[in-house]
């Protein structure tokens, strides 16, 4: 076997996973591909199935499991945080407003990165702040592309409507006027992972007296550009 680490069980499990990269594989094919003993391959494959790193298709063949997709998404989100600072700083400087990056955690959206406006009246949202998924342009972006059931659940008691979310999907960005807090406006756009799923929302926020009652008309283009930069950063293959 290539790429021996010296930890036997890990090396063998990695060999099984590598063999499954080619697609659905029977136990006999897995034995041939890994050159491991049949009982060893069977035991490892079953253990990997238990941890969802491997699954079985409708014909009983072994395939790579859903847990690998989840782990890959998490790795992509780590790249998201690493890439966020310069993008948010540029967005703040381009708009003159505070910029944030939100990710959904259960029934909340959490600020995971921010660049605050240094002086004057501003909307301050420190990293780690939990905000409602029922109001605000970032919440609209994080919900708009969910599947039907999650969408309906998310709309319960929300301050935005299905029509508003339809507009978000059509335009590709969201705006809010006093939804989260009176006098505060915001513009957000979705950040997507490698699979195309929305994994975050990048936003600017500030007082309506500066952002006006049509903040998207003024700032949507630059917010969309920031979201696209972060989407590209997440999609890059790690070195």
From TrEMBL:
Coiled coil: none annotated. The keyword Lyase does not apply. Keywords: DNA-binding, Transcription, Transcription regulation. Residues 67-236 form the IclR-ED domain. This is IclR family transcriptional regulator. Residues 7-66 form the HTH iclR-type domain. SMART domains: HTH_ICLR. PROSITE patterns: HTH_ICLR (PS51077), ICLR_ED (PS51078). It holds the Pfam family IclR_C. Gene3D superfamilies: 3.30.450.40, Winged helix-like DNA-binding domain superfamily/Winged helix DNA-binding domain. The keyword Transcription applies.
């Amino acid at each position: 076997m290539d790429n021996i680490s010296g930890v036997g069980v890990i090396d063998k499990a990695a060999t099984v996973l590598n063999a499954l990269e080619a697609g659905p594989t029977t136990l006999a094919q897995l034995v041939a591909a890994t050159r491991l003993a049949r009982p060893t391959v069977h035991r490892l494959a079953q253990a990997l199935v238990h941890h969802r790193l491997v699954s079985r298709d409708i014909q009983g063949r072994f395939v790579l499991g859903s847990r690998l997709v989840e782990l890959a998404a998490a790795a992509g989100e780590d790249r998201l945080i690493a890439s966020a600072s310069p993008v948010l700083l540029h967005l703040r400087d381009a708009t003159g407003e505070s910029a944030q990056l939100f990710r959904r955690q259960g029934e909340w959206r959490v600020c995971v990165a921010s660049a605050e406006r240094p002086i004057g009246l501003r909307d301050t949202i420190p990293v780690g702040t939990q905000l409602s998924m029922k109001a605000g342009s970032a919440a609209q972006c994080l919900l708009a592309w969910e599947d039907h059931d999650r969408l309906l659940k998310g709309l319960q008691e929300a301050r935005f409507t299905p029509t508003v979310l339809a507009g978000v999907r059509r335009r590709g960005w969201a705006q809010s006027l006093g939804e989260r807090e009176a006098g505060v406006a915001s513009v957000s756009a979705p950040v997507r992972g490698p699979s195309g799923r929305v994994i975050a929302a990048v936003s600017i926020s500030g007082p309506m007296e500066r952002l006006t009652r049509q903040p998207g008309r003024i700032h949507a283009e630059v917010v969309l550009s920031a979201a696209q930069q972060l989407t590209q950063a997440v999609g890059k293959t790690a070195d």
